[in-house]
TrEMBL record:
UniProt xrefs under PANTHER family: CHLORIDE CHANNEL PROTEIN CLC-E
Gene: clcA_1
Transmembrane segments: 22-43, 82-103, 177-202, 258-276, 297-315, 335-356, 368-390, 402-426, 433-456
Domain CBS, residue spans: 489-547, 554-613
Membrane protein topology class: Multi-pass membrane protein
PROSITE patterns: CBS
Superkingdom in the source lineage: Bacteria
Keyword Translocase annotated: no
Protein name, UniProt field: H(+)/Cl(-) exchange transporter ClcA
Localization in the cell: Membrane
Single GO molecular function: chloride channel activity
Keywords of the record: CBS domain, Chloride, Chloride channel, Ion channel, Ion transport, Membrane, Transmembrane, Transmembrane helix, Transport
Lineage, opening ranks: Bacteria, Pseudomonadati, Planctomycetota, Planctomycetia, Planctomycetales
SUPFAM superfamilies the record matches: CBS-domain pair, Clc chloride channel
GO cellular component terms given for this protein: chloride channel complex
């Protein structure tokens, strides 16, 4: 604890009330996220080497840009399918026991948990969650479970950012920014895509075309640092190489190629819808199983192993068929570089089955990300579609591998509602920006076509709906608006003279829809107000009807507003005293009644302003 206290004193020595604080904090988050990515990568390889490789003989293929710490050791080439089934099931069991006994919040894919913390938990992530997530995910992926790396890495960065914000007693807004910056750092580091990491952190929070603009600069800085730190752990020749190598140089040779890319977008959208519905359908089935939650990941891992073994024998022991397990990046590397070596049935089957193995592994409560499997599914669907279209239009479709690259972007853009960051992400991890035009086309079309499905269910449509901004927009929309913008001075109001008897008042209520009644004196100056409820209190005793007058039942100490009053202040008054109508009086002479302001009309005006903001795309910041 002494170290933590000293660390906190060091950080607070900086001026944390200025924008310069984000430089210090972002660098710190980036360093931790980069180190976390290294630890997670090494831990996953250690688990894999000592389980899948040593016991089952399965060493899954990697991408050109990946580095194995065991690459100089003798690799086992004889795969034992049934031992692989034991290993993957044991990994699921170990992951479930660790998660549900120490941090149940770490189940499933971690990015959704970080999104939920941003919107609904004031940016708070318990410090134990990233640690448990890292261990559980390494066990899941290292033993052959189908998942991605981004979930645990995102939670490491997000959890550290949240913890530091709490240590420094920063505001909830600053803690949310640091959480999101941590997500960007983790993604940018592990995928070696710093720009995409920053944009991903700002975009993935919302399902509509909205950005958390405050996040972009801190996330960019932390992502750069995380990328740099992670690359230091790689050999010199791999440090700045994209994940899938630097030899992907596909091109667009004619505008006519946009037609098959449009067809690809439709195929990808259908695949993305199938993926999301299968994933959450599987999740509902597992939650309904009459077993303890900690054992469900083992069942999911067992099913994953059985399906993987089935694929292995179905394709005559082709090791590439086992890409439905673990990350599966090896077959994706082949799909992007030498599509002719992969049959169309193999590509489509891997994509189809990967949907189920990922659902079994993660939707059962296992720990891992969903972005990695999305790339494999999208890439295989894209390359297979490219191969098919090449047979139909050989002169137009000359590079089926390019369809795999575009497929990666379009598929995830549709499923996760993150078109901009996905375009940059795929371009960075492949080192190829020459397909930017078809990638933008596919990502945009898939985003539009997949509006009704959500891979990340904790996303909110936009900043207007997010609880993180709930207090912001009420002030912004109403600020500058006046009472005079809402109330109608021409509306007829029934005035009650102060001497009018209760008997006359009771009988007059039957002929009016008015619920609040101003009381005036001989000069028609307002001196009080009463409601139907005030009258109802006297109805039990008719003897009082002749004796009581309006002055006896009115409230003389009442809240009133003037035409120039700010509507935000008026809304606060409505809420504080819980009334439906407020009298509007002359600002210079409060005795002159100008009209009545209705609470429902004020709320209606507020909703109209919100709709105007949405249509005009206005920024509604404090």
């Amino acid at each position: 604890m002494t170290y933590f206290k000293t660390f906190g004193q060091f950080l607070t020595s900086f001026d944390l009330k200025t924008n310069s604080k984000w430089f210090v904090l972002s660098v710190l988050i980036g360093v931790v996220a980069g180190l976390g990515a290294i630890v997670f990568d090494v831990l996953t390889q250690v688990v894999q080497h000592n389980t899948l490789v040593s016991i089952a003989g399965f060493d899954h293929p990697q991408t050109v840009g990946e580095h194995s710490i065991y690459e100089d050791s003798d690799k086992v080439t004889h795969v034992s399918p049934w031992l692989m089934l034991v290993v993957v099931t044991a990994g699921g069991l170990a992951s479930g026991l660790i998660v549900y006994n120490f941090a149940p919040e770490a189940e499933g894919h971690g990015t959704d948990a970080a999104i939920d913390a941003f919107h609904n938990k004031r940016g708070i992530i318990q410090p134990r969650v990233p640690i448990i997530k890292t261990i559980a995910s390494a066990l899941t992926l290292g033993t052959g479970g189908s998942g991605g790396r981004e979930g645990p890495i995102a939670q490491i960065g997000a959890g550290f950012g949240s913890w530091v914000a709490g240590l420094l007693k920063l505001s909830a807004r600053d803690r949310r920014i640091m959480l999101a910056a941590g997500v960007g750092a983790g993604i940018g580091g592990i995928f070696r895509a710093p720009l995409a990491g920053a944009l991903f952190a700002a975009e993935i929070l919302y399902s509509n075309a909205d950005f958390e603009s405050d996040v972009i600069v801190p996330a960019a800085m932390s992502s750069i640092i995380a990328y740099s730190v992670y690359c230091l752990s790689l050999p010199q020749h791999l440090r700045f190489m994209p994940l899938f190598g630097d030899s992907l140089h596909h091109t667009v040779d004619s505008h006519g190629e946009l037609i098959p890319y449009t067809i690809l977008s439709i195929v990808l959208s259908l695949a993305a819808i199938f993926y999301v519905k299968t994933f959450y359908g599987t999740n509902r089935i597992f939650k309904s199983l009459p077993v303890k939650p900690m054992f469900r990941p083992a069942i999911g891992a067992l099913l994953t192993g059985l399906v993987g073994i089935g694929m292995y024998f179905l394709f005559e022991k082709d090791i590439r068929a086992l890409s439905v397990m673990s990350t599966g990046y090896g077959v994706l590397q082949d799909a992007l570089t030498s599509a002719a070596g992969l049959s169309i049935p193999l590509l489509l089957t891997i994509a189809f089955v990967k949907v189920f193995t990922t659902s079994f592994t993660i939707a059962s409560g296992g720990s891992g990300g969903v972005f990695g499997p999305s790339m494999v599914i999208g890439g295989c669907v894209g390359t297979a579609t490219g191969r098919i279209l090449q047979q139909l239009w050989p002169e137009l479709v000359t590079q089926p591998e390019a369809y795999g690259l575009v497929g990666m972007a379009g598929f995830f853009a549709g499923a996760a509602h993150a078109p901009i960051s996905t375009i940059i992400m795929v371009s960075e991890i492949t080192g190829n920006y020459s397909l930017l035009l078809p990638t933008m086309l596919a990502s945009t079309l898939c985003f539009v076509l997949c509006q009704k499905v959500h891979l990340y269910q904790k996303q909110y449509p936009s900043r207007l709906e997010s609880p993180a901004h709930r207090g912001d927009f009420l002030v912004d929309v109403l600020e500058g608006s006046r009472v005079s913008d809402v109330f109608d001075p021409e509306r007829k109001i029934q005035l009650i003279h102060e001497s009018k008897s209760l008997d006359e008042i009771v009988h007059s209520l039957a002929g009016t829809q008015q619920h609040y009644f101003p009381v005036v004196d001989d000069t028609e100056r307002i001196i009080g107000i009463f409601s139907e409820d005030d009258v109802r209190a006297y109805l039990y005793d008719e003897t009082i009807w002749k004796l009581a007058v309006a002055r006896d039942i009115m409230q003389s100490d009442f809240v009133k507003v003037s035409p120039d009053d700010d509507l935000n202040t008026v809304m606060q008054r409505f809420t504080s005293i819980n009334v439906e109508v407020l009298p509007v009086v002359d600002e210079q002479d409060p005795g002159i009644l100008l009209g009545m302001l209705n609470r429902k009309e004020t709320i209606g005006y507020y909703n109209q302003q919100l709709m105007k903001c949405k249509r005009a795309g206005e920024e509604c910041d404090e």
